[in-house]
Amino acid sequence: MTNQEIHDDIDLDRTHVGRYELLFPIGRGGMGVVYLGRLTGPAGFEKLVAIKIIHPSLAAQREFTEMFLDEARLAALVHHPNVAQILEVGTEDDILFTIGEFVKGVQLGELARRVHRATGERIQPFLIAHFVRQLCRGLHAVHEQKGPDGDDLGLVHRDVCPRNLLVSQQGYVKLIDFGIAWAKERLTHTDAGILKGKVGYAAPERIRGEKFDHRCDIYASGVILYTLLLGRSPFPGRQLATRIKRILSGQFSFPRHVDPSIDPELERIVLIALAPKPQHRYETARQMADELGSYIEKTANASPEELTRKLVSDHFEQELAMWQRRIEQLHSQRNPSWAASIRENKGPVDWDNYPTEPYEPISGPDKDIQDASITRPLCPDK
Fold first, then answer.
1. What is the pLDDT of residues 238-267, one digit of tens each?
2. Global pTM?
3. 159 carries an active-site annotation
4. Residues in the chain, pLDDT under 70
5. Each residue's pLDDT tens digit, 13-26
6. Which of the residues 159, 177, 217, 366 is marked catalytic?
7. Is residue 324 part of a domain?
8. Are 74 and 155 in contact (CB under 8 A)?
9. Which DSSP helix (H) or strand (E) runs through 205?
10. Is residue 119 included in any domain, yes or no?
């Protein structure tokens, strides 16, 4: 089923989900459609949210719905600046949905591509380290989350990849879609034991179908760090079988073999995160974040936060300006019939040509990467 079919197959006639008004779609993917929503209250109170409506074909499966709700309720316990908060989950009239924090931002992978297209250069290494450091801080909060009884929940994101990382207009990295990946994965395994489209970020133990823990998220963070630094995947290959073989072998071209300008300290961080065996990786995401922080302190030639804001503003000026126009109109007009006209693309702005890129799913960063040579093993067996 295509993304457009997913979009068309979801009932767009309803105006509300629970307490929240549905305004207009801002993205779609394999799970369903994401809408900009609004909660209003007395004295002009108004809050914008992201509403994800799960595709009916998934919501109709009792096992999926139970797992989805369980996972999302646990995810809603996580409160951290680098994790987009889940505010509410539920069902209504056979509709399965989550209410989440609305992040006006751009996907990290798309930001890297925009910068490269405009300048011919990759993002500066210290800034890439800054992005991944924020990711690791968010992951540590996820991994360390305790339940109401004080016991560790053992949470794992399981879907750490560039499309699930947003860089906000304020310069923060936000991890999204936590709490929904596991339920779908349980029902949509390929023969390799992993979602086919995410194999490039899957740790070897997951591909083998073995027991895994939070260190698979650390591994995925290492893949993101490698890919952003070098503009290519550590495990390239157009054929799925080729990529899986390379991941399982634990062999890839070391960063400094591809680009000698990479700092040895940064390369060491990559190699630890990408260790084939979990026990050879960082024990916690916080350890990885701390080492990235030390590297940033030694090498940053500008404020990472200010530079991030400038990159987002410079390379997404049109999209962000149009987002702002839409949001300003939402604040100035609270008539439900106006919101309905926006959903039907009949608003005062030409929404038919409105770019939804900030929330549109993007292809994987290694989609068009040519095969590369494989070098010595990363971590010899002990």
1. 888 899 999 999 989 999 999 999 999 999
2. 0.81
3. yes
4. 1-13, 30, 178-197, 330-382
5. 678 888 999 988 88
6. 159
7. no
8. yes
9. helix 204-207
10. yes
